[in-house]
Amino acid sequence: MLEVDVVIVGAGASGLMCAIEAGKRKRRVFVLEAANKPGKKILMSGGGRCNFTNYTVEAEHYLSENAHFCKSALSRYTQWDFLELIHQYNIPYHEREHGQLFCNETARDILNLLLSECDKVDVDIQLNADIQAIHKRSESGFKVKTRSQEILCQSLVIATGGLSIPKMGATPFAYKVAEQFGIKVQPTRAGLVPFTLHVEDKAKYAALSGLALPAVISNERQSFTENLLFTHRGLSGPVALQMSSYWREGEELAINLLPGLDLQQQLLQAKKEKIKLKVKNYLTQFLAKRLVSIFLQEELLEICLSDLSHKQIETIAEQFNNWKIKPNGTEGYRTAEVTLGGVDCHAVSSKTLQANQVAGLYFVGEALDISGWLGGYNFQWAWASGWCAGQTV
Ligand code: FDA
């Protein structure tokens, strides 16, 4: 029987950060990872370049049933703290729009940094671990049973992430542990995920597959401005992924395909000035030809701006400035970047990440009901929550 101070389940972003911090405090740390390699999601993140944090991190960039929960950890371990590590390791990085920070070369730089820090403080990482049971011991601490051994520990940290990308080894392990100890789990669903369209819409917009353009997507609660990408399944691109986290089944979205251009005003002005330009020639100054011809009927496209009726102007403006579309659904966990919902934050200390009613049990990272926007916010949450738990475990 092995006896350690801390067992961390999951060698992802939050688990490795927690291991490093606990190791620095001279705690004997044992990490159990189900996959054959640590940090697989880090490696695939940000298109292989890992958007590891953001210059601006605020509570409003996160979704949770407990909106204030993330504030404590995010203020104790900030993006500047993580950047200090990046600078220590001389990892080249760059800023993209909205303050997003990416590696210049490869996401492996981030994983190597974490593994090297783990090494410095003698963290043990066991891969291919198969946890069969967890028992709370009557005195204190836990017994963790894997297929090959039993491990006693004082603190147990659940850092197994959410349900997104099951092919990468995502499991509902955290939710099961929470339930075992009577901790509520907020309903989960896929977030930061492309929309799929109903059959008729899919057929109608199929020819636009591959087309990207700036757009504003809104529903009654949120609005995002970024690039929209038409795919052969539906709508993707950063703006669609962001909105997916705020979308509810059956809800209609309003999409402005010409942000910053008030088409109704422009067309009224053109009519007043008696401009002899066909609608199609006017619109293709701003939009791809194939998009314009799918969105408007042939007879409208051929009319000169000077001859448009007020009703026609309204129709055209509505079509591009306020395109209404009701997605069929999303691509689900198969391609989602995050899982919305998870272990209820009301049941966990926002400062230490320890379960309020179960001494020694901690939840960190995406396993909790905290999901960030696209833009490095999910990793910043993983670093911050892992760091905070690492100070106490
Ligand atoms: P994470 O999922 O990283 O780690 C959990 C670990 O637990 C995994 O190693 C898993 O194998 C292991 N595990 C699961 N079940 C287990 C069990 N039963 N026993 C033992 N181990 C188990 N975020 C961001 O900020 N910037 C970005 O660029 C991206 N890009 C991105 C791309 C893609 C394709 C995805 C899917 C996700 C992103 N994300 C992102 C989100 C980000 O990857 C995610 O929020 C963090 O990795 C969450 O960190 P965790 O440590 O909580 O879980």
TrEMBL record:
Residues 189-338 form the RsdA/BaiN/AoA(So)-like insert domain. The keyword Flavoprotein applies. Residues 5-391 form the RsdA/BaiN/AoA(So)-like Rossmann fold-like domain. Its cofactor is FAD. It comes from the Bacteria. NCBIfam families: aminoacetone oxidase family FAD-binding enzyme. This is Flavoprotein.
